[in-house]
Specification:
This protein has 417 residues and is an alpha+beta fold. The protein has 14 helices and 19 strands. The chain is elongated and about 90 Å long.
Length: 417
């Protein structure tokens, strides 16, 4: 058997070579000793499992745990990976509606919000790994085990309907939807998600390299930026601040020199990607300055395919009153859309200064440049871990923009019709 679990709550399982590949939820560094639960037997007699009667009068199997190799990652980190695989909260609800239609249960009597509320409030830490008789289908499992444990009796307007009819609809609810909804649960957020694969590996049904591997190329996103410094900063930001999802993002190889520095060349490169119908998922990111805004607008006027998104660095309220200098002297100005290159999203301290340069007629604004930007970049790139007192808030917003865009792009390819 092979299991996917949150704490001791199993949410997916398989046998021999019949199982779902959950490898993309984890990274190769996530191999750890995790618990495997087995039925205890009388004196080694495998026809006579030990049982006991629990507080509710149900007969349970007596279990014991062994620790073996498996994958383990905190739920909140797994959910961020799930989003980038395309399972957003919106796609979870779409899946729920599809199951309701397929199984003919009324979403007015059993709405998605009820399932979300139940999974957000159940005490996952108290769930036992023993659900009674082995091999029961998920509909029976839902009615007999999850229904009382999730408290539907207390929160549902029509609990009998939920127990009798909606339970069967839950038989095909994906593990990733369950994980997404459990992430709203305070008792579950820090619990480990474990993939207990050792028994199928030891049984010869799968090889270790098939189970523990780098993220497959079809799950990755190519990030295209205006220059090498943009790519270096964003790549390092993911590795430093979001290492649990950094492997989802590829950047243009800069070892032999950046091939298309500047907004004009990026625009031409984007036209080329469209013309060859590239199949990769691509995000083009422009700076939030006069040149970048112009190219951003021009690029979005193209006939973009579903697998390409064009972004610019986000506006920031901290840029509205920024110290600048130009021919008219030194004064405070809003640099959003005029001078906010990627270095501006780092910690700049109190002495940051933008110098106004050329006028951009297409946007009727001046282009500006952060003075000493190379120094700010080197300070950031030199960090090996989060540094106390360093302000990461603006670069975190950039990462969130990229993540949200990629998650939405991937989720739109999931259909639950």
């Amino acid at each position: 058997m092979i299991h996917l679990a949150v704490g001791r709550l199993e949410i997916d399982w398989g046998k021999n070579d019949g199982f779902v590949d959950h490898g993309p939820l984890f990274q190769v560094t996530d191999v750890a000793q995790v618990p495997y639960y087995y039925v205890d037997h009388h004196d080694g007699d495998y026809d006579r499992p030990k049982t006991y009667i629990d507080a509710s009068g149900e007969e349970r199997y007596q279990l014991f745990a062994k620790y073996k190799d498996g994958m383990s990652k905190p739920l909140w980190q797994v959910v961020e990976r799930i989003r980038l695989l395309g399972y957003t909260l919106e796609s979870c609800e779409a899946e729920f509606r599809s199951l309701a239609e397929l199984n003919n249960f009324d979403t007015d009597r059993f709405p998605f919000e009820l399932l979300k509320q139940a999974l957000a409030t159940v005490d996952v830490r108290k769930v036992s790994a023993d659900y009674g008789e082995m091999g029961e289908n998920f509909g029976k499992f839902f009615r007999r085990e999850l229904y009382p444990r999730l408290g539907f009796e207390a929160i549902a307007d029509d609990p009998d309907y939920v127990r009798l009819y909606a339970g069967e609809g839950m038989e095909n609810l994906s593990a990733y939807t369950v994980l997404q909804l459990l992430a709203f649960n305070p008792s579950a957020a820090d619990l480990p998600v474990t993939w207990q694969f050792a028994d199928v590996e030891n049984g010869g049904w799968a090889e270790r390299e098939d189970l523990v591997r780098e993220l497959d190329p079809e799950h990755r996103f190519l990030i295209v930026t205006e220059g090498s410094s943009d790519a270096r900063i964003i790549r390092h930001a993911f590795e430093l601040l979001r290492p649990h999802i950094a492997d989802f993002f590829d950047f243009v190889d800069m070892e032999e020199g950046y091939p298309f520095a500047g907004t004009g060349n990026v625009y031409k490169f984007l036209q080329g990607l469209i013309s060859i119908s590239i199949q990769n998922s691509v995000v083009v990111l422009y700076d939030n300055d006069a040149e970048g805004v112009w190219s951003y607008r021009k690029s979005n006027s193209l006939n973009l395919p579903e697998n390409i998104r064009v972004l610019k660095l986000p506006d920031s309220p901290t840029f509205v009153e920024f110290d600048t200098v130009g021919p008219g002297g030194r004064f405070m100005a809003d640099i959003n859309g005029q001078a906010a290159a990627i270095e501006c999203y780092l910690d700049l301290g109190a002495d940051a200064l933008v110098r106004w340069t050329n006028f951009k007629s297409e946007t009727e604004t001046y282009q500006g440049e952060l003075l000493g930007k190379t120094g700010y970049m080197r300070t950031f790139l030199g960090q090996k871990a989060r540094k106390d007192g360093y302000d990461y808030s603006r670069i975190e917003v950039v990462l969130d923009l990229i993540i949200d865009t990629c998650a939405k792009m991937r989720s739109e390819s999931h259909k639950f019709d």
